[in-house]
Amino acid sequence: MSDVIEVQGGYDEDGDMPVLNDAELDLYFRMHKKVNERSQEISKTYKNNILVEIEDVEEVHNKAVQCIRSARPYRDSIIMELVVSHHEGEAERFKSFEDFKCHNLTSPSPTTEVRITYKFSSSDSVSGDLEAYKVTISIRSRIADLTQFEKEAPPFISSAILSNIVTRTAKINVEYSDYVKARHFVAMFDEWVKGCDESPEVKFIVHLKRISHLISRFSHLLVIALLGFFVSNAIEVETVSGNEVLKFIVLYGSVFYVVSSLADLCFKKLEVSIDSYLSLSYLKINKGDAKIIKSFKNRNTRSIFWSVVGLLGGVSMAVASSAAYDLIKYFISVD
Questions:
Q1: pLDDT digits (tens, 9 = 90+) for 192-203
Q2: Sign of the CA dihedral with 244 first, then 245, 250, and 255 last
Q3: Sign of the alpha-carbon dihedral angle for 6, 9, 10, 14
C-alpha cells in the first residue's frame, strides 16, 4: 500500500512508544489480520493447443491491468513481477512489461514458461474493508516441456510415448477477498485463451492414437493369416512328390519368416509414426523458440511420411503373401 499512516497520538513518558487511540489500534489490527489471514483461491487450467507470441503476452497483460483498474486499487499499490523460464532452470525476472519487451530476443535457449504475478490492494465499496489480491498467469510451451522430458527420460522410453503426454499450456490462479472480482479475472483469461491462435487438431489421428497399438498387432496377424490361406489354397498336393516335401517345408518356413518380419516392421513403424505426431502448442519470443518450433514441424512431417511408408509396406506384404506359393513353386522347380 502506498498510503502513509501518520501517527496522531503522543508518546509515552520515555518517548519510546507511540500512544495510539482506539480507532488507530483497530485499523492496525484489521490490516494485520487481512495481510496474515489465508486467502481464498480460484484457478483454471487449460490444455488447449495455443500458439503464443510476444504480442499475445502483451495482450493478456493489458487485459489484466484493465481488470485491476476496474477493481479500484489503492494508488501505487500494484506490484508486478514477470518471470521467463528457460531450459535447465534458467530464469529471467522483470519488474515491468516494458523491461520484458526489451529483453534478449536472440537468446538460443527455448522458453518453457512465462509467468506474470500481480499483487494489489483495494477497499470494498460498501463496507470499506481492506481487500488483498494476488493474480498469477502462467503460459507454458508444450514442445519445450516435451524437449526437456526427452532429455531427462531413460533411453527405453521412446519419444512416441512422450508425445502423448498432454501438459497444461495456460493457467490462472487468483487469491482473492471478493469472489465476484476474482471471477472477473478468470473470465478475462478464459476469453484471452479462446482468442489465441490454435494448432489444428487432426481428428482422425487423435482416434488412431487410441488404437495404434492394436493396428500393428492385428495387421501383423492378418498378413500371417493371408499367407497361410493363399498357400494352403494354392498348393497342389497331388503334384508334390515326396522329395519335394522337405524343400517345400524349408522354403515355406523361410518365406513365412521374411514376410512376417517385414510386415511386423512396417506396422510397427506405422504405429510409432502415428504416436509421434504432435499437435503443436508453443511460446515464441526468441530465436531458440523459433528453432524448436521448426524442429517439431519437421518431426510431424516425418511422422506423416513414415506413416504412409509403413502403411504401403504392410499392404505390400499382404499382397506378397498371395504370391508366396508361386514363389515357392518356382524355387522348387528350379532345383
A1: 999 999 988 777
A2: positive
A3: negative
